[in-house]
User: Which sequence fits this backbone?
């Protein structure tokens, strides 16, 4: 078995089961395979494509490994010894005599039944023929062999159908062995959906609907696998009415889950990565009518639906189910099998892929001794059918739409520096909640700095994106330019004003009061107040100093300007002399500080810069 590391660098995962026949050769019994999620990208980088030749080579090489495992099992059996024989009671479904009686009576009628192309008409005709045959043989529900008689009638019907295909080359619905049923393709039928596709092949019809969502809507997985989540989800529903029956709809059963998983595996390799297209996908296939190969119809419907939604897939994907009838002279491979051919045939072989690459493959056989060359031939026959189906799909939509549906959410990814993540989130998520409330968009932030913005409309997305970019890459303030800001913090030495997203400046207390001295910032401003400020200077560390446009600093204030210095030189502040000795003492203290640091405009500039840096650092 390959390791997870090996699978990560592989384009295809192939599981083959088989046994050794009487001739000593290996016969293949089951195949489960699919391209990896990164297969097409790896192929674009130079790895070999998983086409029919590559699969055939893989099947051939698998036989050698199966033989080695069988040898190991036989060696173990020799060491253990032969087990004690167990006598099992022999039972039979019916006797040879009963089979001969019913075959003689029913063959003629069934030869007419198998020529009826319509499924329901054929089923009704078969039921009427059985009733007529049983009446002629005096067999009714009270008869002891009624159950065995029904099995005989089914076996005879199977035998007649198979003989017609082998001898005449004509199938139940009148097609040849390689013919594909008529195909009908529609897109956009569900107007309110993000994308939809209706695919019909014969009496099998599947409606697929695509829904796009934010990446946080991906499915979380709790399994033994290393995979913890998946963003591409496909669900398959097979209601009873799709086969003309009634019954309870109690959720998907094992069959539905398996069919949905196969269709999901087939389409996943063409889905763009999260970096290329940051969406999560949920696709739902509703089988409206079924007569064989509904899982492969779901593959086609999914591909159409994704392209209708505007998802940039790497190509269209189609699938087809192949069948097989074994007879004395060999095998007959059937293309696009019906439900009855699946039940009455010897093989169910599903193949899906693009025009160049096989993306999913599933094989179940009911017989022993199926040679590998038969499977290789079936692969080639399936490719012809797949290309035909793709050509019919291309007539309706040959590439994804260039734009998303108007109903689909808009999601865009923005990469920001990791050290800015905290600023966008804000304390206790305040900033991210504010952005979402103001714009109506939804934000997702990854640890690597990837921010995904989702919104129902483009205008909301652009508004949220602009706010994120302003915080992550804040615009630079310009000296001499006025800004309307909000006071976000108040200290003893001034107020911090947010003038740009992610950019605050200090409005020193000496710049507040309109030329009058104030003791506290709170005497003028409160947190959240709007204020018009002008950038006075930006120091070498990028710290911004603000002032009120047109205002004068109070004389004697810190960094108050030349006029304050001249007044003090003339003997102090005469205008405020009446305010008492305390103010004069403070003025004398400041004068002493000035004398220690020097006089003149250069000394004043140095004093202002040092004081601003110290106080700004304390405020931060």
Assistant:
């Amino acid at each position: 078995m390959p390791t997870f590391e090996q699978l990560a660098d592989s384009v295809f995962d192939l599981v083959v089961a088989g046994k050794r026949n009487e001739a000593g050769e290996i016969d293949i019994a089951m195949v489960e395979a699919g391209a990896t999620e990164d297969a097409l990208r790896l192929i674009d980088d130079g790895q070999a494509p998983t086409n029919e030749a590559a699969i055939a080579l893989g099947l051939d090489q698998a036989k050698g490994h199966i033989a080695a495992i069988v040898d190991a099992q036989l060696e173990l059996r020799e060491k253990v010894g032969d087990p004690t024989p167990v006598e099992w009671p022999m039972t039979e479904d019916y006797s040879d005599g009963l089979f001969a009686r019913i075959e003689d009576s029913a063959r003629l009628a069934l030869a007419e039944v198998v020529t009826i192309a319509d499924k329901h008409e054929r089923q009704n005709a078969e039921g009427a023929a059985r009733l007529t045959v049983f009446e002629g043989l005096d067999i009714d529900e009270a008869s002891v062999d009624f159950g065995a008689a029904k099995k005989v009638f089914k076996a005879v019907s199977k035998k007649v159908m198979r003989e017609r295909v082998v001898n005449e080359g004509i199938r139940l619905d009148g097609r040849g062995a390689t013919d594909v049923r008529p195909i009908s393709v529609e897109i956009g039928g569900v107007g309110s959906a993000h994308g939809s596709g209706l695919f019909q092949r014969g009496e099998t019809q599947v409606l697929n609907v695509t829904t796009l969502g934010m990446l946080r809507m991906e499915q979380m997985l709790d399994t033994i696998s290393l995979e913890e989540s998946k963003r591409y989800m496909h669900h398959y529903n097979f209601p009873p009415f799709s086969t003309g029956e009634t019954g309870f709809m109690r959720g998907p059963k094992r069959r539905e889950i398996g069919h949905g998983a196969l269709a999901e595996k087939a389409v996943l390799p063409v889905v763009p990565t999260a970096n290329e297209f940051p969406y999560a996908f949920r696709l739902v296939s509703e089988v409206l009518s079924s007569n064989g190969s509904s899982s492969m119809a779901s593959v086609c419907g999914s591909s159409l639906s994704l392209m209708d939604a505007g998802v940039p897939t790497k190509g269209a994907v189609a699938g087809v189910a192949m069948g097989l009838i074994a007879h004395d002279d060999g095998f007959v491979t059937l293309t696009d099998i019906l439900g009855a051919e699946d039940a009455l045939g010897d093989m169910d072989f599903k193949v899906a892929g693009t025009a160049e690459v096989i993306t999913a493959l599933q094989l179940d056989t009911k017989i022993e001794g199926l040679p590998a060359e038969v499977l290789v031939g079936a692969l080639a026959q399936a490719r012809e059918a797949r290309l035909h189906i793709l050509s019919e799909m291309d007539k309706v939509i040959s590439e994804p739409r260039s734009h998303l549906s108007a109903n689909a959410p808009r999601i865009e990814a923005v990469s920001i520096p990791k050290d800015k993540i905290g600023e966008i989130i804000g304390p206790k998520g305040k900033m991210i909640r504010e952005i979402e409330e103001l714009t109506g968009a939804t934000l997702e932030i990854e640890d690597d700095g990837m921010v995904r913005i989702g919104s129902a409309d483009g205008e909301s997305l652009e508004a949220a994106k602009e706010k994120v970019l302003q915080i992550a890459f804040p615009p630079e303030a310009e000296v001499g330019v006025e800004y309307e800001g909000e006071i976000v913090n108040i200290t003893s030495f001034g107020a911090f004003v947010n003038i740009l997203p992610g950019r605050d400046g200090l409005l020193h207390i000496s710049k507040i009061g309109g030329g009058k001295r104030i003791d506290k910032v709170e005497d003028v401003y409160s947190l959240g107040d709007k204020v018009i400020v002008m950038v006075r200077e930006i120091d070498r560390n990028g710290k911004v100093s603000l002032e009120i446009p047109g205002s004068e600093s109070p004389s004697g204030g810190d960094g108050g300007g030349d006029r304050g210095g001249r007044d003090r030189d003339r003997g102090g502040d005469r205008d405020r002399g009446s305010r008492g000795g305390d103010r004069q003492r403070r003025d004398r203290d400041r004068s002493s500080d000035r004398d220690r640091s020097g006089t003149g405009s250069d000394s004043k500039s140095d004093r202002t810069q040092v004081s601003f840096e110290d106080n700004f650092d304390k405020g931060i």
Observations:
- Confidence is low (pLDDT under 50) at residues 556-612.
- The CA atoms of residues 11 and 39 lie 4 Å apart.
- Residues 52-80 form the longest helix (29 residues).
